[in-house]
Protein backbone atom coordinates (compact mmCIF):
# COMPACT_ATOMS: atom_id res chain seq x y z
CA UNK A 1 0.00 0.00 0.00
CA UNK A 2 2.81 2.37 0.95
CA UNK A 3 4.76 1.39 -2.18
CA UNK A 4 1.78 2.31 -4.33
CA UNK A 5 1.54 5.72 -2.65
CA UNK A 6 5.26 6.33 -3.11
CA UNK A 7 5.08 5.41 -6.81
CA UNK A 8 2.16 7.87 -7.23
CA UNK A 9 4.17 10.63 -5.52
CA UNK A 10 7.18 9.92 -7.78
CA UNK A 11 5.04 9.98 -10.93
CA UNK A 12 3.38 13.20 -9.77
CA UNK A 13 6.76 14.78 -9.04
CA UNK A 14 8.19 13.64 -12.34
CA UNK A 15 5.16 15.07 -14.20
CA UNK A 16 5.64 18.48 -12.60
CA UNK A 17 9.31 18.46 -13.51
CA UNK A 18 8.41 17.47 -17.05
CA UNK A 19 5.96 20.35 -17.27
CA UNK A 20 8.55 22.78 -15.89
CA UNK A 21 11.14 21.40 -18.29
CA UNK A 22 8.72 21.82 -21.15
CA UNK A 23 7.92 25.37 -20.14
CA UNK A 24 11.61 26.16 -19.78
CA UNK A 25 12.29 24.69 -23.19
CA UNK A 26 9.51 26.77 -24.71
CA UNK A 27 10.86 29.84 -22.94
CA UNK A 28 14.34 29.19 -24.27
CA UNK A 29 12.98 28.57 -27.74
CA UNK A 30 10.91 31.75 -27.48
CA UNK A 31 13.92 33.74 -26.36
CA UNK A 32 15.96 32.32 -29.20
CA UNK A 33 13.22 33.14 -31.69
CA UNK A 34 12.71 36.64 -30.28
CA UNK A 35 16.43 37.22 -30.05
CA UNK A 36 16.94 35.93 -33.54
CA UNK A 37 14.13 38.11 -34.83
CA UNK A 38 15.51 41.15 -33.07
CA UNK A 39 18.95 40.39 -34.41
CA UNK A 40 17.54 40.05 -37.92
CA UNK A 41 15.56 43.26 -37.61
CA UNK A 42 18.56 45.12 -36.22
CA UNK A 43 20.89 43.76 -38.89
CA UNK A 44 18.44 44.84 -41.58
CA UNK A 45 17.84 48.23 -39.98
CA UNK A 46 21.44 49.12 -39.18
CA UNK A 47 23.15 47.22 -41.98
CA UNK A 48 24.44 48.65 -45.25
CA UNK A 49 21.67 49.67 -47.62
CA UNK A 50 21.21 48.59 -51.26
CA UNK A 51 22.11 51.88 -53.01
CA UNK A 52 25.42 51.96 -54.86
CA UNK A 53 25.65 55.70 -55.47
CA UNK A 54 24.66 58.96 -53.80
CA UNK A 55 21.06 59.84 -54.61
CA UNK A 56 18.41 62.39 -53.74
CA UNK A 57 15.12 61.35 -52.16
CA UNK A 58 12.12 63.65 -52.00
CA UNK A 59 9.63 63.65 -49.13
CA UNK A 60 6.43 65.24 -50.35
CA UNK A 61 4.64 67.65 -48.07
CA UNK A 62 2.21 65.74 -45.84
CA UNK A 63 3.85 62.32 -46.30
CA UNK A 64 3.69 60.05 -43.24
CA UNK A 65 6.45 57.71 -42.10
CA UNK A 66 4.58 54.74 -43.55
CA UNK A 67 4.06 56.45 -46.93
CA UNK A 68 7.71 57.49 -46.99
CA UNK A 69 8.82 53.92 -46.20
CA UNK A 70 6.83 52.58 -49.13
CA UNK A 71 8.30 55.11 -51.53
CA UNK A 72 11.82 54.41 -50.25
CA UNK A 73 11.36 50.70 -50.96
CA UNK A 74 9.86 51.37 -54.40
CA UNK A 75 12.83 53.54 -55.34
CA UNK A 76 15.42 51.07 -54.05
CA UNK A 77 16.72 53.02 -51.06
CA UNK A 78 15.69 50.28 -48.59
CA UNK A 79 14.74 46.60 -48.84
CA UNK A 80 11.84 46.43 -46.37
CA UNK A 81 9.33 49.22 -45.75
CA UNK A 82 7.80 47.43 -42.75
CA UNK A 83 11.10 47.20 -40.89
CA UNK A 84 11.90 50.82 -41.74
CA UNK A 85 8.60 52.20 -40.44
CA UNK A 86 7.80 49.86 -37.56
CA UNK A 87 11.26 49.17 -36.16
CA UNK A 88 12.46 52.70 -36.89
CA UNK A 89 9.50 54.34 -35.12
CA UNK A 90 10.42 52.45 -31.94
CA UNK A 91 14.17 53.04 -31.81
CA UNK A 92 14.51 56.59 -33.14
CA UNK A 93 13.80 59.72 -31.10
CA UNK A 94 11.59 61.47 -33.66
CA UNK A 95 9.91 59.40 -36.39
CA UNK A 96 8.27 62.47 -38.00
CA UNK A 97 9.73 63.03 -41.47
CA UNK A 98 10.37 66.49 -42.90
CA UNK A 99 9.30 67.62 -46.35
CA UNK A 100 11.94 68.35 -48.94
CA UNK A 101 14.78 66.81 -50.94
CA UNK A 102 17.44 64.92 -48.98
CA UNK A 103 20.86 63.73 -50.08
CA UNK A 104 21.22 60.02 -49.31
CA UNK A 105 24.77 58.64 -49.54
CA UNK A 106 25.55 55.30 -51.19
CA UNK A 107 24.98 52.31 -48.91
CA UNK A 108 23.11 54.32 -46.28
CA UNK A 109 21.37 52.11 -43.71
CA UNK A 110 17.70 52.43 -42.82
CA UNK A 111 18.78 54.03 -39.55
CA UNK A 112 20.92 56.61 -41.32
CA UNK A 113 18.17 57.37 -43.83
CA UNK A 114 15.51 57.84 -41.16
CA UNK A 115 17.76 60.11 -39.11
CA UNK A 116 18.45 62.18 -42.23
CA UNK A 117 14.76 62.48 -43.06
CA UNK A 118 13.76 63.39 -39.49
CA UNK A 119 16.74 65.35 -38.16
CA UNK A 120 18.74 66.42 -41.21
CA UNK A 121 18.37 69.55 -43.30
CA UNK A 122 16.69 69.33 -46.71
CA UNK A 123 18.64 70.46 -49.75
CA UNK A 124 18.23 74.22 -49.97
CA UNK A 125 16.43 75.52 -53.03
CA UNK A 126 16.01 79.24 -53.49
CA UNK A 127 15.10 81.87 -56.05
CA UNK A 128 17.15 85.06 -55.97
CA UNK A 129 15.78 88.34 -57.30
CA UNK A 130 18.52 90.97 -57.76
CA UNK A 131 17.99 94.54 -56.64
CA UNK A 132 16.60 96.72 -59.40
CA UNK A 133 14.90 93.97 -61.37
CA UNK A 134 11.42 94.67 -62.68
CA UNK A 135 8.47 92.42 -61.86
CA UNK A 136 8.57 91.13 -65.43
CA UNK A 137 12.15 89.92 -64.94
CA UNK A 138 11.27 88.41 -61.56
CA UNK A 139 8.27 86.50 -62.90
CA UNK A 140 10.37 85.22 -65.81
CA UNK A 141 12.80 83.70 -63.30
CA UNK A 142 10.06 82.22 -61.10
CA UNK A 143 8.24 80.66 -64.04
CA UNK A 144 11.50 79.18 -65.36
CA UNK A 145 12.13 77.13 -62.20
CA UNK A 146 10.83 73.65 -63.02
CA UNK A 147 10.85 72.53 -59.38
CA UNK A 148 7.85 74.77 -58.74
CA UNK A 149 4.28 74.11 -59.81
CA UNK A 150 1.56 76.24 -61.34
CA UNK A 151 2.07 79.36 -63.40
CA UNK A 152 1.94 83.09 -62.75
CA UNK A 153 0.10 84.46 -65.73
CA UNK A 154 -0.50 88.05 -64.67
CA UNK A 155 2.25 90.47 -63.67
CA UNK A 156 1.95 91.79 -60.12
CA UNK A 157 2.26 95.55 -59.51
CA UNK A 158 5.69 97.00 -60.23
CA UNK A 159 7.77 97.42 -57.10
CA UNK A 160 5.74 94.92 -55.06
CA UNK A 161 8.61 92.39 -54.75
CA UNK A 162 11.44 92.78 -52.25
CA UNK A 163 14.70 91.64 -53.90
CA UNK A 164 16.50 88.86 -52.09
CA UNK A 165 16.83 85.08 -51.87
CA UNK A 166 13.72 83.03 -51.06
CA UNK A 167 13.81 79.39 -49.99
CA UNK A 168 11.20 76.95 -51.19
CA UNK A 169 10.48 73.23 -51.18
CA UNK A 170 10.23 71.45 -54.54
CA UNK A 171 6.57 71.12 -55.39
CA UNK A 172 5.65 74.49 -53.89
CA UNK A 173 3.54 76.68 -56.14
CA UNK A 174 5.07 79.62 -57.96
CA UNK A 175 2.33 81.79 -56.51
CA UNK A 176 3.38 80.85 -52.97
CA UNK A 177 6.94 81.99 -53.71
CA UNK A 178 5.66 85.24 -55.19
CA UNK A 179 3.46 85.73 -52.11
CA UNK A 180 6.56 85.50 -49.89
CA UNK A 181 8.34 88.13 -51.97
CA UNK A 182 5.40 90.50 -51.87
CA UNK A 183 4.82 90.01 -48.15
CA UNK A 184 8.48 90.77 -47.52
CA UNK A 185 8.17 94.06 -49.44
CA UNK A 186 4.97 94.99 -47.63
CA UNK A 187 6.61 94.44 -44.25
CA UNK A 188 9.89 96.15 -45.18
CA UNK A 189 8.15 99.19 -46.64
CA UNK A 190 5.91 99.57 -43.57
CA UNK A 191 8.92 99.37 -41.25
CA UNK A 192 10.98 101.87 -43.26
CA UNK A 193 8.07 104.29 -43.59
CA UNK A 194 7.41 104.15 -39.85
CA UNK A 195 11.02 105.07 -39.06
CA UNK A 196 11.49 107.66 -41.83
CA UNK A 197 13.13 111.02 -41.40
CA UNK A 198 10.64 113.84 -40.76
CA UNK A 199 9.84 116.49 -43.36
CA UNK A 200 10.37 114.29 -46.40
CA UNK A 201 8.44 115.54 -49.47
CA UNK A 202 6.65 112.19 -49.68
CA UNK A 203 2.99 111.75 -48.83
CA UNK A 204 2.77 107.96 -48.53
CA UNK A 205 4.69 104.69 -48.43
CA UNK A 206 3.81 104.29 -52.12
CA UNK A 207 5.68 107.50 -52.96
CA UNK A 208 8.69 106.38 -50.93
CA UNK A 209 8.67 103.11 -52.90
CA UNK A 210 8.56 104.96 -56.22
CA UNK A 211 11.49 107.21 -55.33
CA UNK A 212 13.47 104.26 -53.96
CA UNK A 213 13.04 102.45 -57.28
CA UNK A 214 14.53 105.46 -59.10
CA UNK A 215 17.46 105.60 -56.67
CA UNK A 216 17.99 101.86 -57.21
CA UNK A 217 18.23 102.27 -60.98
CA UNK A 218 20.42 105.38 -60.83
CA UNK A 219 23.40 103.83 -59.07
CA UNK A 220 25.01 100.45 -58.59
CA UNK A 221 27.31 101.84 -55.90
CA UNK A 222 25.72 101.03 -52.55
CA UNK A 223 27.43 103.87 -50.65
CA UNK A 224 25.98 106.45 -53.08
CA UNK A 225 22.34 105.66 -52.47
CA UNK A 226 21.79 108.17 -49.64
CA UNK A 227 23.54 110.87 -51.74
CA UNK A 228 21.44 110.13 -54.82
CA UNK A 229 18.29 110.01 -52.69
CA UNK A 230 19.14 113.41 -51.21
CA UNK A 231 19.50 114.95 -54.68
CA UNK A 232 15.97 113.88 -55.59
CA UNK A 233 14.60 114.94 -52.19
CA UNK A 234 16.21 118.37 -52.66
CA UNK A 235 14.66 118.64 -56.11
CA UNK A 236 11.21 117.72 -54.81
CA UNK A 237 11.53 120.30 -52.04
CA UNK A 238 12.31 122.95 -54.68
CA UNK A 239 9.61 121.71 -57.11
CA UNK A 240 12.26 120.81 -59.68
CA UNK A 241 11.70 117.95 -62.08
CA UNK A 242 13.62 114.80 -61.21
CA UNK A 243 15.10 114.40 -64.72
CA UNK A 244 16.06 110.75 -64.21
CA UNK A 245 17.13 108.81 -67.32
CA UNK A 246 15.91 105.41 -65.98
CA UNK A 247 12.36 106.77 -65.86
CA UNK A 248 12.53 107.55 -69.59
CA UNK A 249 13.72 104.02 -70.28
CA UNK A 250 10.91 102.50 -68.21
CA UNK A 251 8.39 104.58 -70.13
CA UNK A 252 9.73 103.01 -73.33
CA UNK A 253 10.10 99.38 -72.21
CA UNK A 254 7.64 99.21 -69.29
CA UNK A 255 10.24 97.00 -67.64
CA UNK A 256 9.72 94.14 -70.09
CA UNK A 257 12.95 94.47 -72.06
CA UNK A 258 16.27 96.29 -72.03
CA UNK A 259 16.91 99.32 -74.19
CA UNK A 260 20.47 98.25 -75.20
CA UNK A 261 21.24 101.69 -76.64
CA UNK A 262 21.45 105.30 -75.63
CA UNK A 263 18.37 107.45 -75.10
CA UNK A 264 17.42 109.48 -78.16
CA UNK A 265 16.71 113.20 -77.97
CA UNK A 266 13.21 112.56 -79.27
CA UNK A 267 12.62 110.19 -76.33
CA UNK A 268 13.79 112.81 -73.85
CA UNK A 269 11.36 115.30 -75.37
CA UNK A 270 8.45 112.86 -75.60
CA UNK A 271 5.95 113.24 -72.80
CA UNK A 272 5.07 109.90 -71.19
CA UNK A 273 3.69 109.24 -67.68
CA UNK A 274 7.19 108.10 -66.68
CA UNK A 275 9.40 110.73 -68.33
CA UNK A 276 10.52 112.84 -65.38
CA UNK A 277 12.12 115.32 -67.80
CA UNK A 278 8.58 116.16 -68.90
CA UNK A 279 6.38 115.56 -65.84
CA UNK A 280 6.38 117.16 -62.42
CA UNK A 281 6.98 115.08 -59.33
CA UNK A 282 7.06 111.30 -59.29
CA UNK A 283 5.99 108.85 -62.00
CA UNK A 284 2.76 106.92 -61.37
CA UNK A 285 4.42 103.67 -60.27
CA UNK A 286 7.85 102.35 -59.30
CA UNK A 287 10.17 101.62 -62.22
CA UNK A 288 11.74 98.55 -60.58
CA UNK A 289 11.87 96.57 -57.36
CA UNK A 290 14.17 98.46 -54.98
CA UNK A 291 16.18 96.68 -52.32
CA UNK A 292 15.95 97.40 -48.62
CA UNK A 293 19.01 99.71 -48.73
CA UNK A 294 17.42 101.95 -51.35
CA UNK A 295 14.24 102.13 -49.28
CA UNK A 296 16.32 103.16 -46.26
CA UNK A 297 18.32 105.67 -48.32
CA UNK A 298 15.12 107.47 -49.30
CA UNK A 299 13.80 107.33 -45.74
CA UNK A 300 17.12 108.74 -44.44
CA UNK A 301 18.82 110.70 -47.23
CA UNK A 302 22.12 112.49 -46.74
CA UNK A 303 22.08 116.14 -45.77
CA UNK A 304 23.59 118.21 -48.61
CA UNK A 305 22.61 120.85 -51.16
CA UNK A 306 23.40 118.93 -54.35
CA UNK A 307 20.85 119.16 -57.14
CA UNK A 308 22.76 117.44 -59.95
CA UNK A 309 24.93 114.40 -60.56
CA UNK A 310 26.60 112.75 -63.52
CA UNK A 311 28.68 109.62 -64.01
CA UNK A 312 32.27 109.96 -62.84
CA UNK A 313 33.72 107.61 -65.43
CA UNK A 314 33.00 105.21 -68.23
CA UNK A 315 31.85 102.36 -65.98
CA UNK A 316 29.01 102.36 -63.40
CA UNK A 317 31.27 101.14 -60.57
CA UNK A 318 33.11 104.50 -60.67
CA UNK A 319 30.05 106.24 -59.28
CA UNK A 320 29.01 109.84 -59.77
CA UNK A 321 30.15 113.42 -59.19
CA UNK A 322 27.71 115.86 -57.61
CA UNK A 323 27.06 119.56 -58.06
CA UNK A 324 25.01 122.26 -56.37
CA UNK A 325 24.70 124.56 -59.38
CA UNK A 326 23.87 123.99 -63.01
CA UNK A 327 27.10 125.68 -64.13
CA UNK A 328 29.17 123.29 -62.03
CA UNK A 329 27.11 120.40 -63.32
CA UNK A 330 27.82 121.44 -66.93
CA UNK A 331 31.53 121.32 -66.21
CA UNK A 332 31.13 117.83 -64.76
CA UNK A 333 29.14 116.77 -67.81
CA UNK A 334 31.87 118.09 -70.13
CA UNK A 335 34.50 116.12 -68.23
CA UNK A 336 32.34 112.99 -68.40
CA UNK A 337 31.94 113.38 -72.17
CA UNK A 338 35.71 113.67 -72.60
CA UNK A 339 36.21 110.51 -70.51
CA UNK A 340 33.49 108.68 -72.44
CA UNK A 341 34.99 109.73 -75.77
CA UNK A 342 38.45 108.59 -74.67
CA UNK A 343 37.01 105.28 -73.48
CA UNK A 344 35.16 104.79 -76.76
CA UNK A 345 38.30 105.61 -78.76
CA UNK A 346 40.36 103.22 -76.68
CA UNK A 347 37.75 100.50 -77.10
CA UNK A 348 37.80 101.04 -80.87
CA UNK A 349 41.61 100.95 -80.91
CA UNK A 350 41.61 97.73 -78.89
CA UNK A 351 39.07 96.20 -81.24
CA UNK A 352 41.12 97.27 -84.29
CA UNK A 353 44.28 95.79 -82.76
CA UNK A 354 42.45 92.54 -82.08
CA UNK A 355 41.20 92.44 -85.68
CA UNK A 356 44.70 93.01 -87.04
CA UNK A 357 46.18 90.34 -84.79
CA UNK A 358 43.58 87.87 -85.98
CA UNK A 359 44.21 88.76 -89.63
CA UNK A 360 47.98 88.32 -89.14
CA UNK A 361 47.45 84.95 -87.48
CA UNK A 362 45.19 83.77 -90.28
CA UNK A 363 47.70 85.02 -92.91
CA UNK A 364 50.53 83.17 -91.18
CA UNK A 365 48.48 79.98 -91.08
CA UNK A 366 47.60 80.35 -94.77
CA UNK A 367 51.27 80.95 -95.66
CA UNK A 368 52.33 77.87 -93.71
CA UNK A 369 49.73 75.73 -95.43
CA UNK A 370 50.89 76.99 -98.85
CA UNK A 371 54.53 76.18 -98.03
CA UNK A 372 53.62 72.66 -96.92
CA UNK A 373 51.65 72.15 -100.13
CA UNK A 374 54.65 73.32 -102.25
CA UNK A 375 57.05 70.99 -100.47
CA UNK A 376 54.79 68.02 -101.06
CA UNK A 377 54.53 68.68 -104.82
CA UNK A 378 56.78 66.29 -106.86
UniProtKB/TrEMBL annotation:
The record marks 218 as: Important for catalytic activity. Pfam families: YceG. Gene3D superfamilies: Classic Zinc Finger (3.30.160.60), Endolytic murein transglycosylase (3.30.1490.480). It catalyses: a peptidoglycan chain = a peptidoglycan chain with N-acetyl-1,6-anhydromuramyl-[peptide] at the reducing end + a peptidoglycan chain with N-acetylglucosamine at the non-reducing end. It is a single-pass membrane protein. Residues 342-378 are annotated as: Disordered. The keyword Cell wall biogenesis/degradation applies. Its EC number is 4.2.2.29. Keywords: Cell inner membrane, Cell membrane, Cell wall biogenesis/degradation, Lyase, Membrane, Transmembrane, Transmembrane helix. Its main location: membrane. It comes from the Bacteria. The keyword Cell wall biogenesis/degradation applies. It is found in: Cell inner membrane. The chain crosses the membrane at residues 20-42. Residues 365-378 have a biased composition (Low complexity). Belongs to the transglycosylase MltG family. Functions as a peptidoglycan terminase that cleaves nascent peptidoglycan strands endolytically to terminate their elongation. NCBIfam families: endolytic transglycosylase MltG. This is Endolytic murein transglycosylase. The lineage of its organism: Bacteria, Pseudomonadati, Pseudomonadota, Alphaproteobacteria, Hyphomicrobiales.
Amino acid sequence: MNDRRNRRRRRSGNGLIDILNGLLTLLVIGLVVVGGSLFYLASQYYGTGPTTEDRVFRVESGNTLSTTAGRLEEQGFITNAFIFSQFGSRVEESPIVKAGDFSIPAGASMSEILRELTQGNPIRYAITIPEGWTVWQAIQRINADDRLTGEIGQLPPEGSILPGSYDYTPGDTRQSVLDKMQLAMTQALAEVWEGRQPDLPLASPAELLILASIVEKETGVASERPQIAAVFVNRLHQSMRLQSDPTIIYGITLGQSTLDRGIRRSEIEERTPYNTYQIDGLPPTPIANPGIESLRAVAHPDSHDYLYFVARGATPREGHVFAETYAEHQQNVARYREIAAEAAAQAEADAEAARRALEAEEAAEASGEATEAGESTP
